[in-house]
Amino acid sequence: MMELKYTPKAKEDLQNVKYSILDTCGSEETAAKVLREITKTVRNLAVFPYMGIELVKTTGVLTDYRSLFCRHNYIFCRIEGNCILIIRILNEKQDYMRVLFGIKETEE
């Protein structure tokens, strides 16, 4: 089983998921349920580190990041030796190309 580590930004992202749900529906229970599902998905990576999609295959950006989707959120991670590093956890409505790589998905 591989070790799991969260970057400070990924930890902050989890808090933002919680606050976003609280702002939207005001339910602590719903927020806790979504966070449990996200963290369960992340824990599955310790056993199945190659879950998800290589980001290079969907974006064309040369990166070793992988992505998974859980409850309207993308989990971005990479394998570093015997460790899975959780890079970011971003809502599906966020422009993850800009957030991760500084690239706009569509040019204006």
Structure description:
This protein is an alpha+beta fold and 108 residues long. 45% of the residues lie in helices and 26% in strands. The protein has 4 helices and 5 strands. It has helices at 8-25, 28-47, 55-59, 96-101, and strands at 3-6, 53-54, 66-70, 73-80, 83-91. The chain has a 5-stranded mixed sheet. Strand 3 (66-70) and strand 4 (73-80) form a beta hairpin. Helix 1 runs antiparallel to helix 2 (28-47). The longest helix is centred in the middle third of the chain and has 20 residues, at 28-47.
In terms of topology, how is this protein built?
Layout: E1 3-6, H1 8-25, H2 28-47, E2 53-54, H3 55-59, E3 66-70, E4 73-80, E5 83-91, H4 96-101
Parallel strand pairs: 1-5
Antiparallel strand pairs: 2-3, 3-4, 4-5
Task: Summarize, please.
With 108 residues, the protein is of the alpha+beta class. Helices cover 45% and strands 26% of the residues.
Structure annotation, total helices: 4
Q: Calculate Rg over CA atoms.
A: 14 Å
Span between termini: 45 Å
Q: Whole-number average pLDDT?
A: 94
Spatial strand order of the main sheet = 1-5-4-3-2
The outline comes out as globular
Percent in strands = 25-35%
Q: What would you call the structural class?
A: alpha+beta
- Could you list the spans in which at least 5 consecutive residues all have pLDDT below 50? none
How are helices and strands ordered from N to C?
A: EHHEHEEEH
**Main sheet properties:** 5 strands, mixed
Helix content percent band: 40-55%
Count of individual beta strands: 5
